[in-house]
Design brief:
Chain B: It comes from mine drainage metagenome. The complex is a heterodimer of chains A (about 475) and B (about 250). Chain A has about 475 residues and is of the alpha/beta class. Chain A is built from twelve helices and 23 strands. Chain B has a single domain, classed as 3-Layer(aba) Sandwich (Rossmann fold). The chains are: A alpha/beta (about 475), B alpha/beta (about 250).
């Protein structure tokens, strides 16, 4: 092995930097899943009847289903009876009322992650609905948003305060019968975020949620529902890190987006969960169902994701282009290192006339990482003049990793125009030599080349998030930002 | 400045350089000429620190340091610059970012303060004007979609900005039209000074019409078999490499 390759291996072999564990007292329901577990979760959250009924129907349906096997992923069987389905940080009273009520240990955890809530409140102008394990612990800027009629709150709060909206929209994009993991989520989801933007309102700030898995052996099942009413606009950021754990942790979230006529939703994710160690032990199993519904004419939904963590990623943020002239976009950077596996991509379902979709996927594989792009472009007979452009690029670092592309194209309308471009390249010793011959260190060179490769996707992220994304790539590849 | 003694270099067990000797002093311009496969590019790559070559014998000293023991970036930071024959593409990385990173790393090594964006831009404007390059060049990705001539010009731009001490140009004349060739030659000539040494690796004599070397070496089968003044290049052009080869063989026989 040459020195350059060795250096490359050292650089990409750095330890996960967010691996710590907060010794919080947790309040868990017993291990395993049964109707009783679901009733207990529902009771703990003091849910109305309709919510419990929905959960139970989902559970009954889940019992009839089997895990999907079509993905290019390999993992030992998951024992669904060996998982805690609910754990919440214990608080002295019913719940925290302000930041001062929050467990200081928890606040310190956020600080270690570089998200000091207090500073964020004041400086960043970002409203943070922080999900720590399963219960939302802090919601800020609520009042300012409320003035505009915007609802941004924990899902469990929305169930109580806005049951009509929940009943009207929950499960209308991802029904509880959708797939194995979505059904599991529907039955057991612990909390999440809810957001409603009223007609003609432009949400004045980026809405943000930081998810974090903390308690040992606790699968976290968030449920997020975002509705942009007619001509409304919202940009939503989701960022994730998780502390180091030895056992695999299951994560099966569901996100539903609904854009009514003329509405626009931008949803951005940076995911940096524990990827497992260098031997491939541990790490998060991330099975996520994210789907947006461009329900009204001229609506627009974009997904942007930077996926650097998790041992296994199974995730296909999709857009149903139902309204005429609707636009769907998917911008993705997925990085696999160590023994990480990612099977990720998107689905663009064209139903309305003149609907347009753009897919830009950048996969980076390092170490023994395996990265698969899987994308479906479906044009139904009703989708007159549908347009799709897909570009799918893979970058390989080293010679033990892999990149795979699985495009599916189904066109049932002859006026459709669907383009697909794919490329695979390797950070070669040629590129590294070129940089180091100019005095640039190998570390900075790798960082520069990878950032360059991802540039087109980073441009789609909000400014402060682009910086964060670069940092996370840095953590995953070099340990520091270049 | 550079002293190479009995250098033997192999790639995948096959010997390319077989006992090469070369002495380059500051202020000199050396041309290394030879047919394809003679080991010219290997020499350039080995001096710059390219991985993948086995050094089986010999030594190379650069400013009293063991050059072969230095990492690629150390060599670059200490002033060794290679203008590549085939510059690689780095998509998404602008020339501005690339060159600013390189320049500031090298300035740090030299004990100079790092340049901020404004000073850097002023410096670049100045250098690019000399090379008749448009400012928009700065925001283009390194060599991405460049024509052959643009790639070579980019190498020369980097050279003039980084101000190396030992400058190695590997077949920089290939793929250039006559105007571009003159421009490149002008830039190289403007870099000539008593503290800097230049090694031109070239197949043809053409470049040497514009950059007149102090010494010309003929490299054949991994060895320098003949050295002389600028006139030697013209003789080579007239008689071809076979002439030197025949001469050297007959000398060996005699």
């Amino acid at each position: 092995m040459s020195t350059a390759t060795k250096q490359l291996d050292e650089l990409i072999g750095r330890e996960y930097q967010h691996g710590f564990y907060s010794p919080l007292q947790t309040d868990s329901v017993p291990r395993g899943l049964s109707e009783d577990t679901i009733r207990l979760i529902s009771a703990k959250k003091n849910e109305p009847e309709f919510m419990l009924d929905w959960r139970l129907k989902a559970y009954q349906h889940w019992l009839t289903m089997a895990e999907p096997r079509w993905a290019n992923l390999h993992h030992p069987p998951i024992d669904y009876q060996d998982i805690f389905y609910y754990s919440a940080p214990k608080s002295e009273k019913d719940g925290p009322h302000s930041l001062t009520d929050i467990d200081p240990e928890l606040l310190r955890t956020y600080e270690k992650l570089g998200i000091p809530l207090k500073e964020q409140e004041v400086l960043a102008g970002v409203a943070v609905d922080a999900v720590f394990d399963s219960v939302s612990v802090a919601t800020t800027f609520k009042e300012k948003l409320a003035e505009l009629g915007i609802i941004f709150c924990p899902f469990s709060e929305a169930v109580h305060k806005h049951p009509d909206l929940i009943q009207q929209y929950l499960g209308t994009v991802v029904p509880y019968t959708d797939n194995f993991y979505a059904s599991l989520n529907s039955a057991t989801f612990s909390d999440g975020s809810f957001c409603y933007i009223p007609p003609d309102v432009r949400c004045p700030m980026e809405l943000s949620t930081y998810f974090r898995i903390n308690a040992k052996n606790t699968g976290q099942f968030e449920r997020t529902l975002i509705i942009a009413d007619e001509n409304a606009y919202v940009s939503y950021l989701e960022g994730c890190t998780a502390p180091m754990r030895d056992e695999n942790q299951l994560h099966a979230a569901v996100v539903e987006l609904i854009a009514l006529e003329g509405a626009r939703i931008k949803y951005a994710t940076v995911q940096n969960w524990y990827p497992g160690d260098k031997q491939g032990r541990g790490g998060i199993y991330n099975f996520v169902t994210k789907r947006g519904d461009c329900r009204g004419n001229n609506s627009h939904i974009s997904w942007t994701q930077v996926e650097t963590g998790s041992a296994i990623t199974w995730k296909y943020p999709s857009v149903i282009l139902r309204g005429d002239n609707a636009i769907g976009e998917f911008y993705s950077v997925a990085l696999t290192n160590y023994f990480q596996q990612a099977d990720t991509g998107t689905k663009m379902i064209h139903i309305g006339r003149n609907t347009k979709s753009t897919v830009l996927s950048k996969g980076i594989s390092a170490g023994h990482g395996q990265n698969s792009y899987r994308g479906l472009i479906k044009v139904l007979p009703s989708a007159e003049n549908a347009r799709n452009y897909t570009q799918c690029d893979s970058l390989l670092l080293g010679d033990k990793c892999g990149a795979h592309t699985f495009p599916y194209i189904e066109v049932k309308n002859p006026s459709a125009k669907v383009e697909h471009e794919a490329s695979t390249s390797r950070i070669g010793e040629d590129q590294l030599f070129y940089c180091t011959q100019r005095g640039i260190s190998t570390e900075d060179a790798v960082s520069m080349i990878v950032s360059g490769f991802c540039k087109a996707v980073f441009q789609e992220l909000p400014m402060e998030f682009a910086v964060e994304a670069q940092k996370l790539l840095g953590v995953s590849l070099e340990g520091s930002t270049g | 400045m550079l002293t190479i003694n009995n250098l033997h270099v192999a790639i995948d067990g096959k010997e390319i350089l077989r006992g090469l000797n070369l002495n380059v002093n500051a202020g000199e311009v050396h041309a290394i000429m030879g047919p394809n496969g003679s080991g010219k590019s290997t020499l350039a790559q080995v001096l710059a620190g390219r991985e993948g070559y086995q050094i089986t014998a010999g030594s190379a000293y650069y400013m009293e340091q063991d050059l072969l023991a230095m990492t690629t970036e150390q060599r670059a930071r200490d002033g060794v610059f290679l203008a590549f024959q085939y510059p690689v593409e780095i998509p998404g990385v602008s020339i501005a970012l690339f060159l600013k990173t390189a320049l500031n790393t090298i300035r740090k090594q030299r004990g100079l303060p790092e340049l901020d964006a404004i000073d850097f831009l002023n410096l670049m404007r100045n250098k690019m004007q000399q090379l008749d390059m448009d400012e928009s060049f700065l925001s283009r990705a390194v060599n991405d979609g460049f024509s052959g001539g643009e790639k070579k010009r980019n190498e020369i731009l980097q050279m003039t900005v980084l101000e190396p001490k030992l400058l190695i140009l590997d077949e920089t004349d290939s793929g250039l039209d006559i105007d571009a060739l003159k421009l490149v030659a002008d830039s190289v000539n403007s870099m000539r000074n008593p503290n800097r040494a230049i090694i031109l690796v070239t197949h043809y004599q053409r470049l040497l019409d514009y950059i007149v070397p102090d010494l010309v070496h003929v490299l054949l089968q991994g060895r320098i078999i003949k050295s002389g003044g600028a006139a030697l290049a013209r003789e080579l052009e007239k008689h071809g490499y076979g002439w030197v080869e025949a001469e050297s063989t007959s000398r060996q026989v005699a």
